[in-house]
Amino acid sequence: MLRYALKRLLSLTLSLAVASVVIFAVIEVAPGDPASFMLGVNAQADTLAALRAELGLDVSKVERYFNWVGGMLVGDFGTSYTYRTPVSQMIADRLWVSLPLALYALTLSTLIAFPAGIYAAARRGKPGDVAVMGATQLGIAVPNFWFAMMLVLVFAINLRWFNAGGFAGWEDGVWTGLHSLTLPAIALALPQAAILARVMRSALLDILAEDFMRTARAKGLSRRQALWRHGVRNALIPVLTIIGLQFSFLLAGSIIIEQVFYLPGLGRLVFQAISARDLIVVESVVMLLVFAVIMVNFLVDLAYAAVDPRLRSRT
Amino acid sequence: KSDIIIAMQLEPPHLDPTSAAAQAIDSVVYTNIFEGLTRFMGDGSVVPGLAESWEISEDGTVYTFKLRDGVIFHDGTTMDAEDVKFSLDRATAEDSTNAQKALFAGIESVEVVDPLTVQVTLKDPNGNFLFNLAWGDAVIVAPESIENIKTNPVGTGAFTFADWVQGDSITLNRNPDYWGDQPALETATFKFISDPTAAFAAMMAEDVDVFDNFPAPENLPQFEADPRFQVLVGSTEGETILSTNNKQKPFDDILVRQALAHAIDRQAIIDGAMFGYGTPIGTHFAPHNPAYIDLTGNSAYDPEKAKALLAEAGYPDGFATTLHLPPPSYARRGGEIIAAQLAEVGIKAEIINVEWAQWLESVFKGKEFGLTIVSHTEPMDIGIYARPDYYFQYESTDFQALMDTLNSTTDPDERTRLLGEAQRLIATDYVNGYLFQLAKLGVAKAGVQGLWENAPTAAIDLTAISWDE
Amino acid sequence: MNLLQIKNLSLAIHDTPILKRINLSVAAGQIVAVTGESGSGKSMIALAVMQLLPNGAEVDGELRLDGQNLLNRPEAEMCALRGAAIGMVFQEPMTALNPVKTIGDQVMETILIHKAMPPAKARVRAEEVLARVGLPTDRYPMTRYPHELSGGQRQRVVIAMAIALRPRLLIADEPTTALDVTTQAQILDLLKGLVSEYGMGLLMITHDLAVVADMADEIVVMRHGEVVETGVTDHLLRHMQHAYTRMLFEASGHQVNLPVPPEPRPLLEVDNVVRDYRLPRKRLFDAPGHHRAVNQVSFTLNRGERLGLVGESGCGKSTLTRAILGLEEVQNGRISLDGQPVFTGHKPNLAVRRKMQVVFQDPYGSFNPRHRVARLITEPFHLLDTSPTGSERQDRVAEMLTAVGLSPDDASRFIHEFSGGQRQRIAIARALIIRPELILFDEAVSALDVSVRAQILDLLAELCSIYDLTYLFISHDLSVVRTITDRVLVMQDGQIVEQGETEQVFSRPQHPYTRTLIDAAPSLPEIGQGAA
Amino acid sequence: MNRNLILGAALSSLVLLAALVSFVWTPFNHAALDIPAKLQPPNAQHWFGTDHFGRDMFSMIMVGARTSIAVALVAVGIGMVLGIPMGLTAAARKGSWLDEFIMRGNDVVFAFPSLVIAILITAVFGAGAINAIIAIGIFNIPVFARITRGAALSLWEREFILAARVSGKGIARISAEHILPNVANLLIVQGTIQFSLGILAEAGLSYVGLGAQPPTPSWGRMLADAQTMVSFAPHLALIPGVAIIVTVLGLNLLGDGLRDWLDPRIRVARA
Ligand SMILES: Nc1ncnc2c1ncn2[C@@H]1O[C@H](COP(=O)(O)OP(=O)(O)OP(=O)(O)O)[C@@H](O)[C@H]1O
Ligand SMILES: Nc1ncnc2c1ncn2[C@@H]1O[C@H](COP(=O)(O)OP(=O)(O)OP(=O)(O)O)[C@@H](O)[C@H]1O
Ligand SMILES: [Mg+2]
Ligand SMILES: [Mg+2]
Ligand code: NI
């Protein structure tokens, strides 16, 4: 187990190293100069040069890469070109929105998907199954930004149950914060829930066809007992993979939703930073996201072991 | 009610108006946190700011400013002549990062006469100097606070910086020690909503009280019809033009540029892209300026004439070019319409949507473009036509001479005449396609008073705002 | 009164008749064996008793346990009976257990689900049963997971689960098919012991006639969903009424006559061959471990000779095959065919490989389901420098198909259109088409029905006389090896422990392991005399 | 045939038909502006109404289908053309450094936040259909590589592969002749799913202004253009939204139906 974890850790580090080179390379070829973006159309050449020097943009690319990576290793992500604040500080601030939002959406989607998937699997082929599966097909097909637009129209503008967007902050209590994240979380959770419910259902159906389910029934377990005691836990393995993928998607992929609800999250930070050519912010956030995905996958792998003893003893 | 939430589209990158071009900085801090020696009023006039009064020498090169007494910075230090000298020297210094360094290019020296008197010597007389000092880039800063000015601005204005939730909002509080009249508002929050849909939703859901420059003109009729809101339509300093690369073939031919001008239906663009908001212009000058002359007839919509001109220039079948469009909707939507109109006369304009950073790099700096649509929002910026290296690359010795004369002229009537001549010159040279003056579209709750209707500069002057009880 | 009484049981799935008017009974303390060809409906009887039939099944007739009808019982009552009154052991020990639960939990679940006793007592009982099936908890703690046990041990856990509440009736569906001979013998002993000890009724389903003859008190022979014959074991063995029963038993003990091998001239020489598999490191900085699957094996196979290789599952037979074929490199030793090594450097020697062909165990899995027969059997042409084309190619295909008893028209069919026996014939045709000097049969008949197996063995004997075949025949089925080979090698843990003339080795085994193997293999009594 | 397959095929071919017909006929010129006639609700002349420039929505939806299909199709093509050989190679050389290299490389790509990278790509190389295709295509590569490798690995264990090796066939030949045809079903099913995801991705990119550029109509950009006008011209948002939903739904149903239909296990059970 430990060896397994260590081996994974090693390949993980390697992946991160490769990712950092790729990120740096891609971002550095982006046309656009942060200095001239900041100083606008009337800037003079000497002013631009002065600003570039101030931003540390006048050294070679290789040197910049190592400064960047070296800094990250000790937790220093550098200083934003445009905001002039430490990037780590900015990321930390944004994480207070993005992380709860991702978790909220994930919780919602799991809460919807599990019962729906189990219900459909238990009623395979019956009208209940067909209805749930039809609904999930629709859920997958709806673009989430469109859904978000509709949510705002109905619940914020017409019914005025929720704010149309923005983030109330956590200072006024957890509820205020969660309340302002509810619509975005729903918009994000819907397609995810649809996917998860489908995975849950098909994983369960696979398990239901396994011999040990028949064994369980032969012991005298009813259909439902067998499903809950022997089915659900085995079905968790593929479901966990998807949950892991979804979490990383939610952390990074909510750019558009953050845009629709003008939430000060990570996604919008990158978006703004890309248009402002605040390269260091883009690089660091992308790196962080890649790191998060890789870590989440690592954790999911470890979680497998908790679910599946066969993996635990794999030396 | 003494607090207000004001929404704006863009978030300032930082809060130092003297080292960035971003208008969002000025919107938040101009006259609220920072003040200059002179300042703009809502109607565009320049009035005394931190300078109570001034004297100009006979030859127009020495300005002696008398500063207000008892002005203190938010950190408690007094504002005196040393601070003025520091601020101006900082803007003109070798390593200055001032985005409008050209404004100060004429300054020869700044001297402290006594704590409340400063003498500025210019190299040449400059009729615009007081106007230039009113810009946000010329505000007076405190040397003690310069280190952290970007995140913790310390000025002399009626409001102090309180809090910044990055990506979301900035909060300002009333400055009890302000030298002038106390404003009605106690706190003001600036919220950043870039997405036009979100802007509409936020306004409709009454999440915000004011939207400074509402990005979606199509929604204004709804606000007007709704008694909860008021709509303020004013004008800005933004001349929206179809910039043309004057050095690039075939635009180096005046016939082609003239054809271009006649191929464009301004009213259709204003209706289609701006839903009717905006004033047609025929030259690079703001219609609300007294010196403006209406030259729209010079480039009236006439596709047949355009075709004829093209044929005369040797392009009977038209030609292909590029149309670079930056993000604002006036450009993106306007561009779609212009491309369709140009297609009518045979010009195939390939639309290339770019972000600002890219626009600055490839269009503005690299000059790799055929056509582009931009709103030039700097006030009184006809002078850019005297710069042959400016991105549209207009080179006319006549015009340059005209500007030189203008700069050394202080007589208002003569200036008006010269400005008129300049307007006419660029219009008849068809340097660019002149479209419309960008409207300022403000939306506010019905009870809000004292908002600027026009935007002589990017500013949201909080001092005049109050709630109608 | 019989414990289980089945009367006129008919079963249809989606209107396809599966079982037709079945009658059988099991008394307490009695072992009843159901046998018959694959697909005859044996498992369906078991599932009908458990009332765990697949969707769409319609049942008719009587199914009584202790006189009470089981058919159309409410599901809740059936749940109460399953596991408590009727226990069932399924065929596949590898998949019959939930991989994510400990064996203790799974055994205890049977007890707890029926609320037969409080958890503490249930645990004690579970320990008892596990000990009874030969898994004492001091050596095999209840916290083990199924994957930590061998196949035979897993099958015992399944049995423990089934007998935890001492059901009156135990149904075992092919309980040993997946196990090797030695393990099989242990499991069968265990089942016999349980019957005599607890007085259970045992309904055992198997197609292995030797097992049937060895264990059962009564035999039920099935074919096409019908019972063709039933009777007390001894009697039935001696007085078979039905032709099908006779055919079945004869095919099981089928003998063939091989032509006499020619003068010994070495063809394949295997010299001191070692094949190691790398195991993952135990700890991070340890050297990787090794598993020696083939250990210093040496033997010679002469031209025209038929050599057998026996040994229990996992002893390295297939590994050796792959090494001979040059599919995997060996760590030590030399393999050469006709004096030429199969491996030169690190590359297989194609010149040598074209002299060898192989026939695998799985007659379906060894064909690409998307190709037609003609393309399938001509695949080895790839080894030839100039492969025949056009009509010559067609002729070769037709010739080969005829040789293995199929029709040349079959060339354009797909593999799924053939029966198991026909598929194996096609595999042999593929092996023969380039006239190889040597053919390797790796468990080539293990998956086949007894009657089909007999046909294939006949075909082999026939081909031997026509083509002078030389082959290596690998199997764990001793009776088959005994009849189809001249000489035999016995393999244990990667080593050859004994070799010699086939008859010699089988009648006078020298090595103790050989003796264990032969003893463990159930054998058919001499049958057929005195048919009525 | 099953219900999913029929419904899915019907919806997908409807969209495909609209795209094909648009090459020869649309009710109006999709690019012709008619600003006085803007924002008309659906009526007898303009079946789906007109947009904010007075263009005919029905024609735009038809031509937009072309864009969506083209972008998604090419993106899936890129994923397949690069991903499948990678997966086949990795499976054939299981455990080798090449396998490790390919799969870790794919993991890294997979770990990137796709939308962020798509935005970056378009920021670097400019917005446009081609770059949208590349951005979406790149993230299809690991999907196909993984699926192919997974399925191929279990095939390599099969005896007919061993038989082919005994016949002296090399890795490349076996991969092409035996492995690929046997994973084709799986890849087709995955292909339809990636195709529908591609359409969603294109819509998302166009929505943030990074997809196909005007005057080429694109459903995502139509939605983006419409979003500020939902409150007074809801048809502008509803119609492209429904078009996307119908297409994606159709493709997903088709994929599901194909899987059921092509899966031999299920087909045998049904026979
Ligand atoms: N779920 C099912 N649906 C339809 N037919 C089935 C199903 N399961 C089995 N059958 C059919 O029922 C018949 C009897 O099957 P059964 O499993 O009882 O055979 P068997 O005698 O146990 O064979 P084997 O020795 O191969 O296990 C076969 O023809 C089989 O095809
Ligand atoms: N690729 C491999 N890696 C590691 N160990 C292996 C590998 N292949 C086989 N082994 C091990 O080598 C030993 C011999 O395996 P082999 O397949 O040759 O057995 P066999 O005698 O053919 O058994 P069976 O009768 O079950 O087919 C077994 O213990 C097996 O677990
Ligand atoms: Mg069976
Ligand atoms: Mg084997
Ligand atoms: Ni008799």
Automatic annotation (TrEMBL), chain A:
The chain crosses the membrane at residues 101-122, 134-157, 177-197, 235-257, 285-307. It is found in: Cell membrane. It comes from the Bacteria. GO terms for cellular component: plasma membrane. Keywords: Cell membrane, Membrane, Transmembrane, Transmembrane helix, Transport. Residues 95-300 form the ABC transmembrane type-1 domain. It holds the Pfam family BPD_transp_1. Its main location: membrane. InterPro entries: BPD_transp_1_N (IPR045621), MetI-like (IPR000515), MetI-like_sf (IPR035906). GO terms for molecular function: dipeptide transmembrane transporter activity. It is a multi-pass membrane protein. Gene3D superfamilies: MetI-like (1.10.3720.10). Belongs to the binding-protein-dependent transport system permease family. This is Peptide/nickel transport system permease protein. It comes from Ruegeria halocynthiae.
TrEMBL record, chain C:
It comes from Ruegeria halocynthiae. Belongs to the ABC transporter superfamily. Residues 4-249, 268-518 form the ABC transporter domain. NCBIfam families: PRK10419.1, PRK11308.1. GO terms for molecular function: ATP binding; ATP hydrolysis activity. Keywords: ATP-binding, Nucleotide-binding, Transport. The keyword Transport applies. The keyword Calcium does not apply. One of its GO terms (cellular component) is plasma membrane. It is a peripheral membrane protein. InterPro entries: AAA+_ATPase, ABC_transp_ATP-bind, ABC_transporter-like_ATP-bd, ABC_transporter-like_CS, Oligopep_ABC_C, P-loop_NTPase. This is Peptide/nickel transport system ATP-binding protein. Transmembrane segments: none annotated. The lineage of its organism: Bacteria, Pseudomonadati, Pseudomonadota, Alphaproteobacteria, Rhodobacterales. It is found in: Cell inner membrane. GO terms for biological process: peptide transport; transmembrane transport.
From TrEMBL, chain D:
Residues 65-255 form the ABC transmembrane type-1 domain. Its main location: membrane. The chain crosses the membrane at residues 6-28, 67-88, 108-139, 232-255. Pfam families: BPD_transp_1. GO terms for cellular component: plasma membrane. GO terms for biological process: transmembrane transport. This is Peptide/nickel transport system permease protein. It comes from Ruegeria halocynthiae.
